[in-house]
Structure formats: structure tokens, C-alpha cells
What we know:
The chain is an alpha/beta fold. It contains 10 helices and 23 strands. The chain has helices spanning 73-78, 99-112, 126-135, 151-160, 186-203, 222-226, 324-338, 363-375, 401-410, 435-441; strands at residues 6-10, 16-17, 33-37, 67-68, 83-84, 88-93, 117-121, 144-147, 165-169, 206-212, 231-238, 243-251, 259-265, 268-271, 287-294, 297-309, 317-320, 345-351, 383-385, 388-389, 395-396, 415-418, 428-431.
Amino acid sequence: MGKIKTYFVCNQCGATSPKWVGKCPECGSWNSFTEEITEKSNQPQNSTSKNYQILKLRDIKGVEVDRFSTNIKEFDQVLGGGIVKGSVVLIGGEPGIGKSTIMLQIASLLSRFNKKVVYFSGEESTSQIKIRASRLEIEESDMDVISTNSYESVDEVLRNNSYDYAIIDSIQTFYSAEINSAAGTISQIKNITHSLVEIAKSLGITVFIVGQVTKEGSIAGPKVLEHLVDTVLYFEGDYNRGIRILRSVKNRFGPTNEVGFFEMQDKGLKEISYKELLNSTNNLPGRALTSVMEGTRIFLVEVESLVTQTFFNFSKRNANGFDTNRLQMLSAILEKKGGLNIGNHDIYLNVAGGLKINEPAADLAICASLISAYKNKPLPESSIFIGEVSLTGEIRNISNTKSRISEALKLGIKNVYAPGNLDEKGIESFRVDNIFSLINYI
Ligand code: TYD
Ligand code: MG
């Protein structure tokens, strides 16, 4: 027998190296490399004995995507209109955010619709699951529950029963005896997911895979998992207020960046309307509203900021739910193009409800919030600010202005601050073509 060949894999990003290294050259994590055995291929070299078929594209029959609606509107929305039969969905999130809770709730709901559901838990014993189920008032559910860490058992159960849905909670706790490394390592996760995808596609079972996210915000081995599955959902949110936002970052069967809003209550996750993220007491200095588009959805988001004199040599820029670099850029534009003297001030910015804004349309609202906080003057009541701020201090138009305004109108917004000529019924518009005119309005 020849010498066993090994290599080293980073458990954070999946980078490989022939030798052990202390710091990953790809992602910079320390002490993340573990040794794994190079997998041997048992397949004969020359195995192309006609297991393919060439088809004309026009002759291929199209298939309707078979969706199942869970009746939880927010959950269906994130999936693009319901659960697609035979798809593999990865649900990621930090520990304690509510992945197991939502999966148990969905599982019991599906079994109430007479679907055959099995819940594999590698983290909890069956009695712990029962306690959770009692709390969620679903302890009489018909679904099957298995507490195991062995992937071979999962495989056997799925192949020998005709389940419609399977839940794997969580992928990091399962271990396949075929792979020579510990549970949770890249090669375990990758191989198990691979095999689950194969089962899902061949048997038409819909599989939900729960994935633990590390503090840095990535599922251990995220890249390897993300491209294997059909849909990737992430849980984010404001822990203190119990707000949970489910977001699709990849979806083969629907739009990405679709979001759903939930609140963690004492009897599990309940869907809520995004309006509950907004604070009702308005009009304090530093608070501004904007309109954000995620996936196919448009909703109002509140940003708040605090601007105070710096007492040290170095002024702080701190953002929650917004890119700190972009905040730095916006404050530099306010300083240079708007003549606002905030260079020697600390800036703290927060997006309400634990939401993360990635859209440049929110730039104008963030600038308005900073100006308002700096001048200690509240912004005009019932107003939204939409527009992208460019490096020259000009405000650029953004997409879907009409739909944003009509959503704002539903919530009683009366004024809109935006670039260009807006002629929309029912709302008063204030033209803001550059940072200077924004400062003048405030
Ligand atoms: P959990 O689903 O176990 O998180 P994850 O699987 O993502 O690690 O969520 C656990 C948290 O949710 C825990 O802090 C308790 C809280 N919780 C509620 O507030 N209400 C409930 O009904 C349940 C079941 C949990
Ligand atoms: Mg859990």
C-alpha cells in the first residue's frame, strides 16, 4: 500500500494547502487549517460507456416548478412563492437566532398538510425537541424525529422511506464514516451536502439544511455549501427586540435578496409586517426615513445617527447595519462638498430593527440623518429621503422611484426629498440635486 496522501483545508473559507499553515493566506483566519486525507476515486478510469444522451433543446419538455405554499406569507415570499419540490435549501444564521425553531414550526405545518416529514437533529435529543415543540404548542405533530449524528443513518432512512420533506439540523454536527475527518470539517460538510443533493434530486425529497454561521458571518465552508444547494437563506436581525429577518442570498427558483420579517415570541417565530420595525416616536434629531428595495419588495427603513465632538485625535465612524466605508465616504462628502464641519466629530449610525442596508438609495437619508444630528434639528415630519450620493456631491436618481413613493404614501408619508423633477400625486416633493441643497433644506 502506498503512503496515504494528506492535505490541509481552512475550515473558514475552504482554501487548501499541501502544508499546515498558521494563518490562512486566503481569508486571514488563524489556526483554521485541519488535515484531511486525499480522497481516492474508486471509479474505473475509462467509464464513459454511454451514460449520456444528446438532445435538441427544442425537444426537451419543460417542467413546471412545483411549489408548495406554507401559508406563512413571509416564508413563502423569501422562497419566491413557496417551497419548490425536490429543492435543497440551506438556512444559515448565528447560534440562537432561531433556525431550529423555524424549522420545527415549518415541519409541523407541513405535516399538518399531510406531508411526510422527518426532522434529523444532531444537536438535540428527542426529549429536548419535545420540550421545544411543547413551547411552540405543536407537541401533537405527526412528523418523525430522529436524534443522530451519523450521516449513514440519514441516508438509510431517506432511501427506505418515502418522505416528502427532510430537515438536517445542523450540517456541522453530522459525521460520515466514509470521510476521514471530524464532524464539521470542510470535507465532511461538502460530502454530506453533495450526497443530500443527490438524494433530493433522485427521490424528489425537499431537504432543508441548517448551517451554523461563525462570528465572522460565514457558514463554515460557506462557498462549498452555497454552490451545491438551490437556495440559501440567512437569518439576521435585532436580538434585543426579537426581530428576525430571513433573507435569500441565492435562489435558483426565485429572486434573490428577498426578505421576510419575523419576531421571536414566547411561542416561537411569528410573521410581522416591516412597519413594526419603525419607531413610532418620530422627529428627533438624527432620525431619517428612506425607502429600500430588497428582491421584489419595497419598504421604509429608519436610520438614526449620533454626531458628537471627538475628544481624541482620531474620530470614530461606527455603523450598525450599514457599510462603515460608505459611511466614511458620505461624511467626507458632507465635509468637503457641503462645508459641514464633521471631520472632528464621532459618528454613530444605526439602522433600526437590525436590518442591513446595501442599497445606495439610502445615501441621501443617511446624509440627512447626519446633518440633522450635527445641527441637533429634527428633520421635517413625515418625510422620506431617496437618492444616491456621488463623490462629487451630486445626487443621482435611483430605480423604481414611483413604486417607492406609492409604498411611502400607504404609510402616511407626505414629503419626499429626491433628485430631479418628481411629479407624483398626493405627495409634496423637494428637489435635491446636490448635498448643498440638502443642507439648505435642513
Ligand atoms: P434556536 O431556534 O434554538 O436557535 P438556533 O437553532 O438558530 O441556534 O433559538 C433559540 C432561541 O430562541 C433561544 O434564545 C430561545 C428563543 N426562543 C424563544 O424566544 N421563543 C420560543 O418559542 C423558542 C422555541 C425559542
Ligand atoms: Mg439549533
